[in-house]
């Protein structure tokens, strides 16, 4: 239990991921599924950024002179998360555009109704 209290960002990320996954599985509405996917994305970003941060160290931006390698955090997790955010936004835009086209074709954004109309 002590580990959960010390790593509350990671714990919150895991809870958020579970909420997003539950939304993705339990709802038939495509917009709600996209929202669940975005919650999961955000949880992954929070988890990796929390793991990349080290208390007491600074961002690797040299302002008042170089302080040595051990004074700075690793910038790679943050850079990867910035790339991940761009990919997540692009995926969300594509999913929303696909949802609009499905709504135009089938008149609904409920997945079970789309599947039922597609069979008949």
UniProtKB/TrEMBL annotation:
The protein's topology relative to the membrane is: Multi-pass membrane protein
Whether Transmembrane helix counts among this entry's keywords is yes
- Bilayer-spanning residue ranges: 13-31, 38-56, 76-98
Instruction: State where it is primarily located.
Output: membrane
Top-level taxonomic group: Bacteria
Tell me, what's a Pfam family for it? Oxidored_q2
Q: Which InterPro entries match?
A: CPA3_antiporter_subunitC, NUOK/Mnh_C1-like
Where located?
Cell membrane
Q: Which UniProt keywords apply?
A: Cell membrane, Membrane, Transmembrane, Transmembrane helix
Q: Does the keyword Nucleus apply?
A: no
**Family membership noted in the UniProt record:** Belongs to the CPA3 antiporters (TC 2.A.63) subunit C family.
Protein name (Swiss-Prot/TrEMBL): Cation:proton antiporter subunit C
Native organism:
Clostridium ganghwense
